[in-house]
Amino acid sequence: MDRRKVEEGIFKFLMLASAFIILALLALIVTTVIVKGLPAMSFAMITQTPKGGYYLGKEGGILNAIIGSLYLAGGATLLAFLIGLPVVLYLNAYARRGSLLATFTRFSFDVLWGVPSIVYGAFGFTLMLFFGLGSSLLGGIITVALLILPVMTRAMDEVLRLVPAELTEASYALGATRLETSLKVLVRQALPGIATAVMLAFGRGIGDAASVLFTAGFSDSVPCSLFRPAATLPLAIFFQMGTPFPEVQERAYASAFILTALILVISIAARLLAGKYARHVVR
Amino acid sequence: MTRTRRVFKDKCARIVTQALSVGASLLVFLMLLALYQRSRPILALHPLMSLLCSRAWQPLRGLFGFLPFIMGTLWVTGVAIAIAVPLSLLTAIYLSEYAPRTVREWTSPLIDLLAGIPSVVYGIWGVLVIVPMIKNHIAPFFGVISTGYTVLAGGIVLAIMVFPIIIHVATEVFRSVPSEIREASLALGATKWQTVKHVVMRRSLPGIIAAIGLGVSRAFGETMAVLMVAGNVAKIPSSVLDPAYPLPALIANNYGEMLSIPLYDSALLLASLVLLMVVLLFNLFSRIILMRVEGGMH
What we know:
The structure holds 2 protein chains of 2 kinds. By secondary structure, chain A is mainly alpha-helical.
């Protein structure tokens, strides 16, 4: 038997085993969340706010956290989009190829992407001290917007780069300005990709806990103003998990199920969307 | 008239978009500055080195020694990387060199899904599956009594969170190796594995190091999942079956009382600053290598 063949066989086995382990872990995580979460689910969980003593095992649900998370991630996504879209349009329409500013901007977004969310939380906290803001929905929105800005910008930049240069050149040749070309050619061509980027950023915003710990606070009611604290799903899970009561921990499993389902639906929808609309795009 | 108006609008748009780009790319510096500004009060009282190397953590008595937390972070990150690197590199090699196209097309989105799961959910999963496993099986096997909330639990959960990053970057790096080189090696009679080992891997080494660097920086700063499973005891761990209290967990756990004890907020924001600096270091290093690897490709 050839020794080279044996070695190859061993490593091929190890590779298959690693890939299998990683996929099996994914399956294990999802099934654990379903098996533990589904039985603990109840109608009240998603239709009621916590009543007094909810965290001691009394009646109620986590509607406040679900709505709070949607407000927070929605606001943050909007804010990040308002900053991110102009930036990627600058990178792809205005900046010269290989210009220093464009390279530097892309590089700093790459670096920002790796900054831990707890550091965003701490930074958001210093911002709030600076502006004299208490923990509030607004503080959370600003912090999460900064956190998801690199995710969204990088994803949008990737799709805009794929728009064929011939298309934009044709537009310039017809006398369109860079702004008109960006909005009517670049953005329209990349629309499915932009929508995907926005949804991925939204999903990331919903799932993040560490950055809102400092900034959004927590409250038992549905937020009614930007300047009031707001509950979020990840934190609701964390607090329910931290109680010593098994029945409250059960609810943490149910909440984790709701959060995971929400995020999986968003990310699968984002991918399907990208695939579905891609056929209207000139390639 | 309309033409000047259009050109004017275009000029305005250029100014706005350029200003936003400059602003956004300065965000990192703004973060460093803001955190430094807030940690100055404590740095004025104690030199940085004594804060980082002291093991006494008694905020009420004004003692802020970060060493247990730094060591906790290093232990947990070390275990995570030790588990994640072999598994994710082997998977990445399989996906880029051996797997049939259909397998690849089905696996990558699944691994992306792994990346999208929120860290709190990883934390719950760790509490439900990993912690009892360590408590009931692994620790007794080594003759240790443990609650299961240990460095090992944190490391395992973190390793799973790091998988997608290392696999993603490593597959990109392997893909950037030109196929001519592979063909040349195969034509000389090398087996596929020899080609992978001597040609693809050697050529990708800087990229692989960068992938690991990105994994380390992710592991270093991950908060919620580790906080839930690592035990949070402010002592330097001496084995993987000891509890640990990593730096991010310290920051997250104490945000509530940090404004009520003098210098506490300053100490915690200094901890964030240290965290940011370490992560930036690993990130910059990895990104620069990756830019070079990609640069060599074109």
